[in-house]
């Protein structure tokens, strides 16, 4: 086999044109020419593509930073609003608790007054019932005494005593009439 380095070193004589039949040597030369052309012309295109990509990435980063800052600002505003609402809720809660406590105290006071009035009504009712019971007992005792006195009078009285009593009463009534006239 032929040495590869020999094909690189053997050039056709000057002024002649010929084909190099060594495939490896010609591929390297072609490859280096193609790479040189690609690098020369593709460098600008590749730089433009990379610059465009770099600009899009930077724009995306700036936009995301702006969005993040906006989100942080909205978050701070929301936290401030939340804190304000919590303070207001605490104030309402404390006002509501004091209002409930005041209502409870008013209700207790009202119930206390109502119980006192009911106690007074009960005591008045008891006194009234006691007085009525006493009056009923007095009336029965009086009726029993009258019945007893009538019974005693009816059993003790005879016609003569009855006529004398009537005469004495009439006499007393006449004497009273004369005094008043």
From TrEMBL:
Spans through the membrane: 23-46
UniProt superkingdom: Eukaryota
Compartmental location: Membrane; Plastid, Chloroplast thylakoid membrane
Protein keywords: ATP synthesis, CF(0), Chloroplast, Coiled coil, Hydrogen ion transport, Ion transport, Membrane, Plastid, Thylakoid, Transmembrane, Transmembrane helix, Transport
Molecular function terms from GO: proton-transporting ATP synthase activity, rotational mechanism
Residue ranges the record marks as coiled coil: 61-131
GO CC entries: chloroplast thylakoid membrane; proton-transporting ATP synthase complex
Keyword Metal-binding: no
InterPro entries documented for this protein: ATP_synth_b/b'su_bac/chlpt
Family, similarity comment: Belongs to the ATPase B chain family.
Name recorded for this polypeptide: ATP synthase subunit b, chloroplastic
Organism: Salomonia cantoniensis
Native organism taxonomy: Eukaryota, Viridiplantae, Streptophyta, Embryophyta, Tracheophyta
Gene: atpF
